[in-house]
């Protein structure tokens, strides 16, 4: 089977709109969370979020074209364009063996709500003809293919907050087994909307630490009270190793293993057994043991039950070698990007391997006794490691874990 490497990645996020800025902020423990001052959120119990600042849509799309796309599509294409620019594949590649797997957790929620309001206020004639193509969750993947000419397999995984890891993992398998040479893979979401905030707030899932935005996201901390909603996109270019080396590509890391499972239990409450199985499958597929994993980028969002369940799953997998696998939850800085979460964390994990620097969990002032792991608290640590694991889990019991390997030529 073929080896699969990463030759480019792109990011739109609260922590930076390019990979370099993202890494600078994450490696220094800098939070991208801000207070939301929009009056539309006044009734929301949670009023902090990972809001995209000045997104330069015009740098990626003509103004007329951008108006046709929901923000999640704009973010997705921008991230894909960055990934391609970084990889610089040139013109010598087979379009029919280049595909796109970019999914979304909630799709075009902003477009849906805006058109629904117009429908209620002024009737059916005021609904945009672009409503459907702007809102459906596969359109980011479709637009990326249209604009890049990638004519191979095109799919938009929807596995809630595991979406991007699912996309990366399935793209990895497509290349590994010879069905494609290059794949753009990741996720995108633009869920900062009062309607979505209302839904998650009614579940008591969002933090209400509104007075201290940068301290609101507290994965694994004793005083965590819910996650911080964020938005953005992250897309990676995966490539067959021989294809990449033949064209002289700069290789950023290797995708070594992927595991996907389902709890098949409850729609929102996690069962640690499912998460543990996804990690075990990914590690086995990578041809290594838990003791070889030097870093885990945890899914941990800052919810009471979710963090505890993941900690239990990690303990189940790593057992006697728990001390050798250092753990951090970078959502403490980025917030939760939903369908894009696994993508941004994949990029962070790859950067950690390349730089030999493991990012921290900030705001981890009082680690929860029920989340007893080898935490990287508040400050990054230097570590020359070869393998790292990134987790992503979602409502519906979806679990997806990816093992990355430092590329050493």
From TrEMBL:
- What Gene Ontology cellular component terms go with this record? cytosol
UniProt catalytic activity:
a fatty acyl-[ACP] + malonyl-[ACP] + H(+) = a 3-oxoacyl-[ACP] + holo-[ACP] + CO2; (9Z)-hexadecenoyl-[ACP] + malonyl-[ACP] + H(+) = 3-oxo-(11Z)-octadecenoyl-[ACP] + holo-[ACP] + CO2
Q: List GO molecular-function terms, semicolon-separated.
A: 3-oxoacyl-[acyl-carrier-protein] synthase activity
Q: Which residues form the active site?
A: 161
Q: What sequence ranges are listed for the domain Ketosynthase family 3 (KS3)?
A: 1-406
Keyword check for Acyltransferase? yes
This protein's source sits in the domain of life called: Bacteria
Pfam families tied to this protein = ketoacyl-synt (PF00109), Ketoacyl-synt_C (PF02801)
Q: According to its UniProt record, in which pathway does this protein act? A: Lipid metabolism; fatty acid biosynthesis
Keywords noted in UniProt:
Acyltransferase, Fatty acid biosynthesis, Fatty acid metabolism, Lipid biosynthesis, Lipid metabolism, Transferase
Q: Which PANTHER family match?
A: 3-OXOACYL-[ACYL-CARRIER-PROTEIN] SYNTHASE, MITOCHONDRIAL (PTHR11712:SF336), POLYKETIDE SYNTHASE-RELATED (PTHR11712)
* Record-stated family: Belongs to the thiolase-like superfamily. Beta-ketoacyl-ACP synthases family.
The record's NCBIfam families line, in alphabetical order, gives: fabF, PRK07314.1
Described by its record, this protein's role is as follows: Involved in the type II fatty acid elongation cycle. Catalyzes the elongation of a wide range of acyl-ACP by the addition of two carbons from malonyl-ACP to an acyl acceptor. Can efficiently catalyze the conversion of palmitoleoyl-ACP (cis-hexadec-9-enoyl-ACP) to cis-vaccenoyl-ACP (cis-octadec-11-enoyl-ACP), an essential step in the thermal regulation of fatty acid composition.
The name under which this protein is listed is: 3-oxoacyl-[acyl-carrier-protein] synthase 2
Gene symbol here is fabF
